[in-house]
Amino acid sequence: MKRIFAIVIGCLVTSIGVIFLKHSHVVTGGTAGLSLNLSYLTHFSFGTWFFLINIPFYIFSFVRMGWKFTLSTILAVTLLSIMTSLDHFLPSFTILSFPGAIAGGILIGFGLAYLFLNKASLGGANILALFCQKKWGWDPGKINFAFDVIVVLIGAYSVGLVSGLLSILSIAVTSYIISYFKHRIASSHDATVQTPPLQQSAS
Q1: Which of 1, 32, 118, 199 has the highest Cβ tally under 10 A?
Q2: Domain range for residue 176?
Q3: What is the Cα–Cα distance from 166 to 159, expressed in whole angstroms?
Q4: pLDDT class for 36, splitting at 50, 70, 90?
Q5: What is the pLDDT of residues 170-192, one digit of tens each?
Q6: How far is Cα of residue 152 from the mean position of the Cα atoms in its chain?
Q7: Are 188 and 116 in contact (CB under 8 A)?
Q8: What integer is the mean pLDDT of 162-167?
Q9: DSSP 122-166
């Protein structure tokens, strides 16, 4: 129950960050950024795109990270999709791009770090980052940043050059915060190392 509560808190903080970015017309990286880009270009909400895009990553997570991590990730993705969809009930407002990018990056960074510390993620690049940290000891913040920059560059045309640059600033802030907690994240995952399902069946 304590872990579920922690996942709810992590998703709540992250969802506020995503809403900040959306109302600043700034994108972020990973599957969240791709979902934001698609929400700008279509009539479907961020939450709908975010849930659908993550489905292939659930399979990878189950095979490489174990079923407990995968279930926590599915719970987190579902919660974030629901929480961000509540934005439709808020009155219309706009946030200046620069402070919105910084505030959104900070909130998403702390939200993701808290989820990582509680052995959950928000799918996509988060799963790959934690897998690479677990497998090779790579910095999850830097891995996320690399994926995020690619997504932001691809989607920059939907928000413009200035907002695209602010998007890179936002994900740099997010990545810095995640990197700050990298040793604690590694320790939390090493404390409950789980053998992936395929390895269990092979033994």
Answers
A1: 32
A2: 2-194
A3: 10
A4: confident
A5: 988 988 998 888 778 777 766 54
A6: 14
A7: yes
A8: 84
A9: -STHHHHHHHHHHHH---HHHHHHHHHHHHHHHHHHHH-HHHHHH
**Has residue 41 been placed in a domain?**
yes
Buried/exposed code over 28-46 (b: 16+ C-beta within 10 A; e: otherwise): bbbbbbbbbbbbeeeeebb
d(CA 13, CA 7): 10
Dihedral sign from CA coordinates of 74, 63, 199, 137: negative
User: How many whole angstroms separate alpha carbon 88 and alpha carbon 189?
Assistant: 36
Residue 202 lies in a domain: no
Sequence length of the chain is 203
Confidence band, pLDDT 50/70/90 cuts, at residue 203: very low
Q: pTM surpassing 0.85?
A: no
Phi first, then psi: what are they for 26, rounded to 5°? -120, 140
The answer as to whether 199 is a domain residue is no
Average pLDDT, the chain: 81
Whose tokens are 């910095």? That residue is 139
Domain assignment present for 200: no
Domains in the chain, number: 1
What pLDDT sits at residue 10? 94
Backbone angles phi, psi at 121, to 5 degrees: -150, 180
